[in-house]
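In the current project phase, work has continued on tokenised descriptions of protein folds. One protein thus recorded appears below exactly as we store it.

——
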Amino acid sequence: MQSTNLFKTKLFKISAVSAALVLAGCGGDIELSSNVDNSVGDTNITNPAPTNPDTGVDLPGIPSSSLSAEVSAAVGFDVQVQVIDGQVSENTTLAKSDGSKPVFYAISGALEVEAGATLTIEEGTVLFGQSGNDYVVVHRDAQIMAEGTRQEPIIFTSLQDVKGEEATAGQWGGIVILGNAPSNKCPSDGSDCALQVEGVAEGAVFGGANTSENWEDNSGVLKYVVVKFAGFEIAPDNELNGVTFGGVGSGTTVDFLQVHANADDGVEFFGGAVDVKHLVLTGNRDDSIDWDNGFRGRMQHIFVQHAANAGEANRAIEADNDGSTPDKEPMSNPTIANMTIMGNNFDTADKDSEGIYLREGTSAKIYNAVVTGSSEMGECLEFEAGQTVTNAESGAIVMQNSTMACTNGENFKNAGDFDLAAWFTAESSNAVSSSILVDENGVPSAQSPLLGAGQDPAAIDTWFDSTDYQGAFDGTNDWRQGWAFGFGGGEITAPAEQEGCPTGTTAIAPVAGNTTCEISGTITSDLTLTSGNLYALDGPVFVGNDKTDSATLTIEAGTTIFGRSGGDYIVVSRDSKIEALGSAANPITFTSSQDVNGEATGSGQWGGMVILGNAPSNKCPSDGSDCALQVEGVEEGAVFGGADTAENWEDNSGTLRYVVVKHAGFEIAPDNELNGITFGGVGSGTTVEYIQVHENADDGVEFFGGAVNAKYVVLTSNKDDSVDWDNGFRGNMQYVLVKHDENGGEANRAIEADNDGSNPSKQPQSNPTIANMTIIGNSFDTADKDSEGIYLREGTRAQLHNFVVTNAAGECLELEAGTTVDQAIAGDTVITNSVFACSENFKSQDSSSGAFDLMDWVLNVNADNSTEAGVADVVNGIYTIDTTTPYSFGSHPFFDNANHIGAVSEDNDWTAGWTVGLE
């Protein structure tokens, strides 16, 4: 029976976890300790009756009137709280309901399930700790049967979380499960083994002789279980893990388990061979997965994400065998498949966010794994020198069909003379990539290179599910949804729904019937624009001042931001960030008020977007002194650029993902309009993928220096150039679709590319690489400008591959006379594997030494280029139909090896569902 009508309140929502009232009895009793622990955080028990007189249901534990009142007031409906502590010496069931209302269980002190007893926890049951002394221990030869469901997971959490107060790591203890499976700390002669587990009272022991029976020991079931805010610090650097597995055997079932915001490790395995599927580890403050002393379990479908707000974190995996005897048997050797690790930018002198660290002689077999994270993250993969490296070199450590996708320049950290990168890439199925196309929650897009790049682990061991992708998710089925905290489940009470405008914005009159918030001035602290509102720009809006008062503007998927005049635009200053995280189903839209109100739209109705970074431009001083170049089109003080250093080239201005910019490009002065998106000195640490600029009065996108990369770009009906670069731009682009107005409206070049007008060979010299670009021109042709394809000039270089250029009124390709042509002759500029189908395919210009035949250079000097008669020969709508063999990039970290030239193929239409103007 659902609780919607019974318990719904205005401020709180109850998940199905605690809302369902199932008329189920409970069996067994808990043998309570004679005295209730009244230490700090625990509760005095005042009412002795454990039986609901209305239903006759006996409940384990002692009812607490004070806690029942507190929790009921917090959640907005009547809840019975039972306090449980001491020893569970008989089979006992924790029922989720007393027959008339939900029952929550307050753990008081150590709740110990003794040998011979089984603790059964019904689906949807909530247990909470009140202090760090409150934890659960399942001893050897005991069992826990905690079997929730997707709709009703079992939740272990803190009192603060239950009451809707601020919840954080370390507010209660955690769960400890102890079994008879071996550890290499056990005596090697097979005599009795009783290893004290860390973090709990004496007598909590685990381990057993090295027998098949012990390896297969059964401690019960954890299924659809969420553990939150645990890991109390018992002593400095001695906290409980979220779930500790000590000598737990493979007969135990662990499936759909989450540990969130634990003060120590998420899960730790001391020996044993317990298997785990569907493991979610989020926001844990030390290692997410830790194994030691002979662990040999199997794991599949694992998602690790460090706190998104750069909260404390360490390694996603810290893996050991034995510190004093690294080759000790039984040796740690788990098998892992389908794992996604997402680090953050936590970095201190003591520890930082890292990926996988194998050490102290561990072995491991890892398949279909992905490690990624921010540019400030530590190393993504590291092996300790000595026995661990020996294991790698001997084949005892295996990594296959895995990708390192860190953007920090430290995918690998070598151990002495051992070249880890060479070891990793020697396996041909592994990859190093800077563009894996996953969203902020680790889910790959339909175009992600992870899909189809995995091997089937079921062919290795039938315990594993059959998969063909890398990472934890297949892009379609997000198995976290509905039960895991942060993914639609795992909640006791939800915070009050936010109404009105976020702090930092101002409520104004509703537009089109929607709550509307105004943004103005300079944003000097982090701000999130939630998707339930409209946001109006009021004049120039700056995110941070230049290199001071830096801030991050986060924009949720589906959000719309609009300008009401040409003076309304947004600027992201140096050292600030924009995190615009849209999705294919819910893109982020920047547009005009006319568009929002359903009025007639056109170009130039508002300003546009400007992103400014620290990456070099060849307009910066050549002596490396301070660089602050004023960007065109906006007010004074909007500056970009930096010294020619690796750090500046890799600068990170945030993320643009599934972002559509429409009807912008206001003309500030004659021939001075804003671009749709201006990138000034933006570095390669910035993520730009799935963006569109539609119907802009000036250029679609323009790059002033820098090295930002862009993938999946749509530029439609823009009135000047679609792509423009200048002054040392060195980024990469792939899958770029340019389509001039199909009704013959104003247009100019698809690419207008420069280096420097007064000094064409000036360094750093513009030299981007672009692949898989489709340019569909139109019939626009005036005395001043016309629809053209590619114009390279002012000394730019370029590496162009897999182009389709067609239908332009003017020429398809032109190179400016002089330096630009000279560089093409020298081989510094190339174009390959491309087709041209315009009425004037090539416009020749002279070199410094005389006539230059551009057609001959394209068709005979460069490789695999051709011409066709017209648009119908090369594209069907936007889809490539030309069969030219595409250029291969090998194992390039950014470029895919596409199976077609041009931007879009009919069997992979990545534009569908989120773009405009392509109907």
Residues 1-49, 494-498 have pLDDT under 50 and may be disordered. The longest strand covers residues 103-113. Residues 65-75 form the longest helix (11 residues). The chain has three domains: 57-271, 287-478, 515-880.
